[in-house]
Fold:
Amino acid sequence: MLGAITGDVVGSVYEFNNLRRKDFEPLFHQDSKFTDDTVCTVAIADALLHDKDPAATLRDWCERYWSNGGWGKQFARWLAKGKNEPYNSFGNGSAMRVSAAAWLAKDYEHAMALAHKVTVITHNHPEGVRGAQATTAAIYWAIHGATPAQIRANIGSLFGYDLSRSVDDIRANNPRSEACQHTVPEAISCAVEASSFEDAIRNAISIGGDSDTIAAITGSIAEALFGIPAGISETANTYLPEDMLTVVSSFYFGRGAG
Structure:
């Protein structure tokens, strides 16, 4: 969960000002902030932790932070309508917010069921569900000891994503897209090719495109692969308001990691 938040915060300044290199300094830019990606990630974690209705919980958190901005057009309309009906989205918002499903699941099938449950409330297009479940699967496998090579192979065989391109190849030709099918495979590649959590985040920023969301997806997987260095997690927490910190704390203690 905090991996997704960290990726979002680091990537926030590069979403519309892409930086196609890894050696940027500092990791957290002076203008970094949490975006809608963090709000949604916290909302889904809150819903799963406390057995709340995911659509109502997502709406509650997003209305609370409406002024934060950054909402996708279709998602903003969903919020404005006041009705919890899905809108057939295949946007990558389904994948950036789903990480808690992998950590809180009893087994792989449960992880897939939780990912589906919290996704179809808005992103009920097959590509939206595929992106969320592929991200959840990558995190789940990493938690349970799968190697990056195994994750890459499993994602290809079970979800049909092509992960054959290296990060360097992706960086050379990665047009901006917010669709799951054009961002989730790239984000997973940035995680499984990395040597550390920070390296994964740097990979994600370096390929450009929808930087904050790609980095959020990458960060959620990289957390499971590598853990998050204390200095990075402590810095990420400083960007969060108290109500979000409460959910983050409950998440890590609630799943037995505290």
User: Anything to note?
Assistant: The domain at 2-251 is CATH 1.10.4080.10 (ADP-ribosylglycohydrolase fold). Residues 20 and 206 are 4 Å apart (CA to CA).
